[in-house]
Specification:
Length: 222
């Protein structure tokens, strides 16, 4: 699988101005079409995770070998064995192989074959202000009667914190789930919703590769 590299820059300002980026009707139509085209793959790559203590979180499959990127606060310790709920109501076992509480990121390794196309990831620190983003996740835990809901919003990069913020709402059970662009490429994993309920925060995927460079090689290899 190829890790996409892009060069982006942004200046953080009021999110309201983001609407100028897609003001034309045909712009909205193109975005909507892209989201619809990639909705199935975005939902399929997003998994629900049940930690050893019973807590629910989410994650995203990023390699054919079963690597999953997620959020550290979902798990209790390195080496923890967890349950992964895949599409088609399949359940797999996985192990927490990497954990960094400072950046709130974790890596899981699924045991055995998964037969799911992994999500593409982007190796970039920032996004352009006003970018259309899609949050996937399993709110409130796994539900066999539904797939991962997709929530569309706008985002910006906040340089001081190094986080991506979006208007995509997330809640308990979504933590660690993927933040996609309209093409289905993962830019970040979910951290938390702020106290005002206006913005969600997300950790850029590049943090995984900065902390653990071997992951970039493994994801690219797969």
């Amino acid at each position: 699988m190829e890790i996409m590299k892009i060069s982006v820059w942004s200046t953080v300002f009021l999110l309201a101005v983001s609407f100028t980026f897609v003001s034309a009707n045909d712009g909205w139509a193109n975005i909507e079409g892209n989201v619809q085209d990639n909705a199935d793959s975005m939902a399929d790559a997003c998994v629900s995770v049940k930690a050893a203590n019973g807590a629910w979180g989410s994650g995203v499959i990023v390699s054919h070998s079963g690597l999953v990127f997620s959020a550290a606060h979902v798990y209790g310790h390195l080496g923890e064995e967890v349950q992964i709920f895949l599409k088609d109501n399949r359940v797999a076992q996985a192990k927490v192989t990497k954990l960094d509480t400072k950046h709130d990121i974790a890596v899981l390794q699924i045991h055995g074959a998964i037969d799911i196309e992994p999500a593409k990831v982007v190796d970039a620190n920032t996004i352009e202000t006003g970018r259309t983003l899609i949050a996937a996740g399993h709110a409130s835990g796994y539900n066999a009667e539904r797939r991962s809901p997709l929530r569309v919003g706008f985002g910006f990069f906040e340089r001081h914190s190094g986080m991506i913020y979006s208007t995509c709402r997330i809640t308990a059970g979504d933590s660690g789930g993927p933040l996609y662009d309209e093409a289905g490429v993962v830019h970040a994993v979910h951290h938390t919703m702020d106290g005002s309920g206006k913005y969600s925060s997300h950790v850029p995927v590049v943090r995984f590769f900065e902390l653990w460079p071997e992951l970039a090689r493994q994801v690219a290899k797969d």
